[in-house]
């Protein structure tokens, strides 16, 4: 199994993003990534107002699949998702899962 740590993230999808890993079809990959705020909220004192909003919703990758051709359909199976011991939830008026209730 290959392990890919989120040492660099992308914040937009582009054909110019360079692969962080080249693998063959069928290979299992363990991906460690950041939360939607790029791990900027770590303590109760950290505030949304001080975050870098250009660093939200990071993605890990891309991963190059050897032999894949343009327009191929790729099947991905997510076997397990684990979270750290901290989670962050943000909501506001008309924002997030509780936003309509404020």
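Q: What amino acid sequence fits the structure above?
A:
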């Amino acid at each position: 199994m290959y392990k890919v740590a989120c040492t660099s993230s992308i914040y937009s999808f582009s054909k110019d993003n360079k692969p962080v890993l080249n693998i063959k079809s069928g290979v299992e990959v363990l991906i460690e990534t950041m939360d939607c705020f790029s791990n900027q909220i770590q303590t109760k004192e950290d505030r949304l107002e001080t975050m870098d909003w250009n660093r939200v919703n990071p993605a890990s990758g891309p991963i190059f699949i050897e032999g894949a051709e343009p327009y191929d359909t790729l099947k991905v199976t997510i076997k397990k998702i684990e979270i750290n011991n901290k989670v962050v939830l943000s909501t506001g008026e008309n924002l997030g899962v509780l936003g309509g209730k404020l």
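Q: And what stands out in the fold?
A: DSSP finds no helices and four strands in the chain.
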